[in-house]
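Milestone 3.1: sequence recovery, worked example.
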């Protein structure tokens, strides 16, 4: 009995960390969305990216404690993505579509592992807040490589493709099969699916904007034209009816943060 419990412990801990990770990701996007909504509706906020959201947490009471918890959660989320990519518990398979999805999980894992590392640096007081633009920095590095413009353009096209995939997921409610909602009433299910769909579509808008600016940077061989999450939101606000556009996208990002919390609660997690 003891041996069986010990054998199950790693999977149990991975599941717990994964759920904690979804919640931590939700907190980060919730802050990004809330600050953008305040900026849109004239309540003193500002557009920012995920690192800016972490810095916002740090300035709050018990900020270091809260940020350390978020860092742990983001590491758990990254671990879950690596498990999805390597062990394939959801049986995506080894055909072209399956490999593409699993590669996406791995890339996502590295992104959130990097964000967790940034949070750890902020807690330790050894990094963050440098004022640099990470998106423009890595765009410049890619542009300096052989075929650099093609590389940056390909990344931009890939991100736009991810944006359209978010629209597809929102329209088809693909996330419904990922969550165990049988204990909810039909009305509650509709709310869950509506919030999740709205949030996923808003994330798609942001992806498409970021991808578009990367393609512009590639076309003009100018890394300064690249935009990350915060800058993309700012550009949206500068368009005709920009405050309304930013407000809708901001509310969508808040909805996405709620969707992540719902994933933490209802996601079907198969670790083995």
């Amino acid at each position: 009995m003891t041996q069986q419990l010990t054998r199950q412990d790693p999977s149990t801990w991975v599941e717990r960390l994964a759920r904690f990770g979804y919640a931590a990701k939700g907190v980060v996007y919730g802050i990004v969305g809330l600050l953008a909504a305040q900026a849109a509706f004239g309540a003193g906020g500002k557009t920012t990216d995920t690192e800016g959201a972490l810095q916002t947490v740090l300035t709050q009471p018990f900020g270091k404690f809260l940020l350390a918890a978020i860092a742990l959660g983001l590491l758990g989320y990254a671990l879950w993505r690596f498990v999805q990519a390597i062990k394939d518990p959801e049986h995506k398979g080894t055909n072209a579509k399956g490999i593409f999805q699993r590669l996406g999980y791995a890339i996502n894992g590295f992104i959130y592992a990097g964000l967790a590392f940034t949070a750890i640096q902020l807690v330790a007081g050894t990094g963050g807040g440098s004022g640099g633009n990470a998106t423009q920095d890595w765009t410049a590095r890619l542009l300096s490589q052989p075929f650099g413009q093609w590389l940056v353009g390909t990344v931009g096209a890939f991100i736009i493709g991810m944006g359209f995939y978010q629209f597809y997921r929102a329209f088809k409610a693909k996330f419904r099969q990922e969550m165990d909602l049988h204990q909810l009433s039909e009305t509650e299910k509709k709310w869950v699916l509506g919030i999740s769909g709205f949030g996923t579509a808003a994330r798609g808008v942001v992806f498409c904007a970021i991808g578009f600016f990367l393609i512009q940077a590639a076309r003009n061989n100018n890394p300064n034209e690249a935009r990350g999450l915060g800058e993309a939101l700012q550009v949206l606000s500068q368009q005709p009816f920009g405050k309304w556009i930013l407000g809708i996208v901001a509310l969508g990002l808040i909805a996405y943060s709620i969707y992540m919390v719902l994933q933490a609660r209802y996601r079907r997690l198969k670790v083995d």
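The radius of gyration is 19 Å. The chain has one domain: 10-126+133-266.
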